[in-house]
Design brief:
The protein is of the alpha/beta class and 468 residues long. The chain contains 16 helices and 11 strands. Strand 8 and strand 9 form a beta hairpin. The protein is globular and about 75 Å long.
Amino acid sequence: MSSIRIFKHHVRVPYLLLGIFELCLFVLATYLGTYSRFGTFDPIHSEPNTPLIFRAILLGTVFIISMIAMGLYQARLREGFTGMLIRAAISFIFGSIILSLCFFLFPSLLIGRGVFILTVLFTFISIGVTRFFFTRLVDENILKRQVLVLGAGHRANNIAQRLRRRTDRRGFNIVGYMHIADEEDIVNPDYILNSTQSLVEFANAHNIDEIVVAVDDRRRNFPINDLLDCKLSGIDVVDVLTFFERETGKIELDLLHPSWIIFSDGFGQSNLRVYSERAFDIFASLTLLAFAWPFIAITVVAIWLEEGFKAPLMYKQKRVGLNGKTFNVLKFRSMRIDAEKKGKPQWAQQNDPRVTRVGKFIRKYRIDELPQIFNVLRGDMGFVGPRPERPEFVHQLSDKIPYYNERHRIKPGIAGWAQLCYPYGASDKDALHKLQYDLYYVKNHSLFLDILILIQTVEVILFGKGAR
């Protein structure tokens, strides 16, 4: 099993197991640090403390969340071992800051300085060793699902072309592409399989775990009985679109058809979801405001210093929200006052000359979007959701891109799945790619996914990914 669904979101099993294992490492390291410092696993303190096991779990949980925020549980992390260690070190620094705050607010959770330093040292070394072996084992075929693609035409070629990198195929190995009678073969001939065996015999002979159905025309020579035999023999059978959704975290538009949307699980709304989402939005917005107000104040001063006290601090702009209704989004002004002096809306570009010096900085670290907290509190936006676009662009993109308006089925957000997975969009082509991630979120959105997105957004802000 390469992935499981947790509240509808696909989570890769190897990285889930890695997280659980590393959580155990943190707990074990806490006990080793305590024993190294005091010579016992149950040191006597002058004041009663929470049992060590609970403090160890808290420490491990905080550090694991910090590591998630630094992207250390992403299958497509393409940095080398040194890059991984740097990210781990940064996550340990953030985790230490958060734990220091916890210890200050709740003294009974305190882990002594000596024990804490030893614990961090033991764990950092252990995680370095674990990651060294994990990155090698996770790419071994013996640990991967063996996948057979049924079809060798255009739909099958999408898999061959879009999942070419080794990091794109972590968790599965494509055994080959099975030729279908009367279908034109597009896939590289070296990977096309022709067999006299039945599909189930071939699958059993090659230890196939999963068959991906990528037939161009299911109305002609579709092997329904063979697939039924495979399914009843314990071999998973999935549609190519579902396969892409699971492996890439997006919905491929050129493979999408309305019947898949109708019959797939997802794209649902419920009163419980609506009310829990609103409670989460209010809580997250007030929490962010409590921590972000110094940055808001500094940004105000910086804009005044650069452009004078009469310069406007913020601007309002029409954006499209839930069910296509427009609202005024709030942002710190990061461009010159005459940025659109001709009155024609323009995409933001790389190294846009209209951006001020302060604007360049606050856009890179997403500080310009902090006033949107008030949009969330007012109910125009959610804390997590697709990025709201201007009506002019929405009208233009809706005519060019199929299913574009489906992203308005839920509230737009400050943070989002597309913002995590794709750089800042500044063209029709970018909008198409981002829509594929937005549709994944619309289909699978849940409180769990919202929290996961917020944690991983730390990486985007820290490294300035995707900002223009």
